[in-house]
């Protein structure tokens, strides 16, 4: 247990009585449900191999429990739990069931290789669910829940019970239900705000009510499972912790049913940032950015740019006042050190709102050292340029200083793609690199993938595609717009392309980013390492 905050009085009889203050904090168990509640999102489905990759990374991230799936729901889910159980050692592997005996049999079977295992069973707790989902009564629902917990106990020691829609359930009935499940052997009681309805104060009070009114509460821990329908999932989870819950059910990037679940990175960073809160997690926060990118890529679910902690703009400063403040001392506008979540550095984005400090910072980085009057004059021209376009790239800055656009080292000569069922897409690309024609072909799982792979072969460099976004322009189906981000030798470069054909838009975007690498790596060595 990490020593922090909570104060203990230790008195000794041997020495003179004195007051010794030891700071301690309670551990909050992280129950990750990215592979279960997160994976229920349409389009986010993963195969077993992909789930194993994510599970192993979750283990390295430091989660305590991995909810690996709902095994009765599909043979693939069942197989995934088997493989995840074999692949991870430290985290508890958990399988979800309904309060149905055949579900529990299936869960027990799927967990047979797990070193540490948990069955997560449960049933509706709100009168709404009892009437409209189960057509039952409060008494019968408790009986079913108790029978399910007792049955699950035959297979595993660690049984978690979920009281579905607890957020809208009557607190007195919920307390009765929780007490019965703990008496039946449940070790963890999950209080889901299934519909994301609760206000933080009400959810906190619900947890407190259970802590105060369930006579055997000391034999189990309460878990918060909040949905984000009204944008309150994280606030509700924190309120739950502050009122006695010691486990939180979360997903990477907050993905999950409808508006999603509480996001892991937000809870972990709130508890780390607010040192006055007497709680900690075992999350290795420096892995957060990597984990977020991995989940986003594998689940094909982009992270919104302004998403707390992991959004592209989470550490980007664009207004003049903020940029000036950050350049003087980044604590002026950053409460989290980017390195703490695995982001290399903050970025200072140049827009029409930027000030002279930011402009000077970037000019210096590109090798231009201007005296004050020249900076003033350049700033006026910069503002004009920034007003005309959304943001200003390094290429634009060179144009500003040199009076002409920098030469492009790579030009597209020709692109030919063959694709369609049942052929494997093949692409042949010819680029002119520093005046020399280079041609390569590659296959891929789609025409864009094949084309970018052919370009990679031409360039012969290890380039990582970090983000790829294709959009149709103005609602038309005919014009494709591609934004992408690539990483080369630790530095990130953005590319943009617009064409009627989305393959060609992708090629233009990729070549645009590659030209930036050539420009800044070859002709203008970067002096200070800052992402743009
Ligand atoms: O939101 C919910 O109630 C759930 C339960 C199945 C735990 O996901
Ligand atoms: Zn849920």
Annotate the secondary structure layout.
Blueprint: E1 6-10, E2 20-24, E3 26-27, E4 29-32, H1 48-61, E5 65-69, H2 75-87, E6 92-96, H3 101-110, E7 117-124, H4 127-132, H5 138-153, E8 159-164, H6 171-184, E9 188-193, H7 200-213, E10 221-226, H8 233-242, E11 247-250, H9 264-273, E12 279-280, H10 288-298, E13 316-317, H11 320-328, E14 347-348, H12 356-365, H13 372-388, H14 394-402, E15 410-418, E16 426-433, E17 436-443, H15 447-459, E18 464-472, E19 480-488, E20 491-499, H16 502-523
Parallel strand pairs: 3-12, 4-5, 4-11, 5-6, 6-7, 7-8, 8-9, 9-10, 10-11, 13-14
Antiparallel strand pairs: 1-2, 15-16, 16-17, 18-19, 19-20
Helix pairs in contact: 1-2, 1-10, 2-3, 5-6, 6-7, 7-8, 11-12, 13-14, 15-16
Structure, explained:
The protein is of the alpha/beta class and 532 residues long. Helix content is 37%, strand content 21%. The protein is built from 16 helices and 20 strands. It has an eight-stranded parallel β-barrel with strand order 4-5-6-7-8-9-10-11, surrounded by six helices. Strands 15-16-17 form a three-stranded antiparallel β-sheet. Strands 18-19-20 form a three-stranded antiparallel β-sheet. The longest helix is centred in the last third of the chain and has 22 residues. The protein is globular. The site of 3-methyl-2-oxobutanoic acid has 8 residues, from strand 8 and strand 9.
Summarize the structure.
The chain is an alpha/beta fold. It has helices at residues 48-61, 75-87, 101-110, 127-132, 138-153, 171-184, 200-213, 233-242, 264-273, 288-298, 320-328, 356-365, 372-388, 394-402, 447-459, 502-523, and strands at residues 6-10, 20-24, 26-27, 29-32, 65-69, 92-96, 117-124, 159-164, 188-193, 221-226, 247-250, 279-280, 316-317, 347-348, 410-418, 426-433, 436-443, 464-472, 480-488, 491-499. Helix 13 (372-388) packs across helix 14 and helix 15 (447-459) runs parallel beside helix 16 (502-523).
């Amino acid at each position: 247990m990490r020593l922090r905050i909570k104060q203990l009085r230790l008195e000794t009889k041997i020495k003179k009585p004195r007051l010794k203050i030891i700071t301690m904090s309670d551990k909050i168990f992280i129950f990750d449900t990215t592979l279960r509640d997160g994976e229920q999102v349409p389009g986010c489905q993963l195969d077993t191999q992909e789930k194993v990759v994510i599970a192993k990374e979750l283990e390295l991230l430091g989660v305590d429990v991995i909810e690996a799936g709902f095994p009765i729901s599909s043979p693939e889910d069942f197989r995934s739990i088997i493989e995840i159980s074999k692949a991870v050692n430290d985290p508890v592997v958990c399988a979800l069931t309904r309060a149905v005996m055949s579900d529990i049999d299936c869960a027990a079977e799927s967990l047979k290789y797990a070193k540490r295992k948990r069955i997560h069973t449960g049933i509706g707790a709100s009168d709404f669910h009892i009437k409209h989902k189960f057509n039952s009564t409060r008494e019968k629902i408790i009986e079913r829940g108790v029978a399910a917990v007792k049955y699950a106990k035959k297979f595993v020691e660690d049984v978690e019970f979920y009281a579905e829609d607890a957020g809208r359930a009557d607190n007195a009935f919920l307390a009765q239900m929780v007490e019965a499940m703990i008496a039946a052997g449940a070790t963890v009681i999950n209080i889901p705000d299934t519909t994301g309805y609760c206000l933080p104060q009400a959810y906190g009070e619900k947890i407190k009510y259970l802590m105060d009114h369930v006579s055997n509460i000391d034999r189990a821990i309460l878990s918060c499972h909040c949905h984000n329908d009204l944008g309150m999932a994280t606030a509700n989870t924190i309120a739950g912790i502050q009122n006695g819950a010691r486990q939180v059910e979360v997903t990477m990037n907050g993905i999950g049913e409808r508006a999603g679940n509480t996001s892991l990175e937000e809870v972990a960073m709130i508890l780390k940032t607010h040192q006055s809160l007497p709680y900690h997690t075992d999350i290795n926060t420096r892995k957060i950015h990597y984990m977020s990118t991995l989940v986003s890529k594998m689940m094909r679910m982009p992270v919104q740019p302004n998403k707390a902690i992991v959004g592209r703009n989470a550490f980007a400063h664009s207004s003049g006042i903020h940029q000036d403040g950050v350049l003087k001392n980044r604590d002026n506008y950053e409460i989290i050190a980017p390195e703490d979540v695995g982001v290399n550095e903050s970025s200072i984005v140049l827009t029409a709102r930027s000030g002279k400090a930011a402009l000077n910072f970037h000019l210096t980085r590109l090798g231009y050292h201007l005296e004050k009057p020249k900076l003033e004059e350049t700033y006026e021209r910069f503002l004009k340029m920034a007003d005309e376009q959304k943001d200003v790239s390094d290429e634009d800055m060179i144009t500003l200083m040199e009076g002409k656009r920098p030469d492009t080292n790579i030009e597209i000569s020709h692109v030919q793609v063959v694709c369609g069922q049942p052929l494997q897409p093949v692409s042949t690309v010819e680029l002119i690199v520093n005046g020399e024609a280079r041609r390569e072909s590659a296959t891929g799982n789609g025409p864009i993938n094949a084309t970018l792979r052919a370009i990679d072969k031409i360039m012969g460099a290890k380039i990582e595609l970090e983000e790829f976004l294709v959009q149709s322009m103005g609602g038309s189906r005919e014009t494709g717009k591609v934004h992408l981000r690539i990483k080369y030798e630790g530095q990130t470069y953005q590319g943009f392309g617009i064409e009627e054909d989305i393959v060609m838009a992708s090629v233009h975007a990729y070549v645009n980013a590659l030209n930036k690498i050539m420009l800044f790596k070859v002709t203008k060595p970067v002096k200070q390492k800052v992402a743009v």
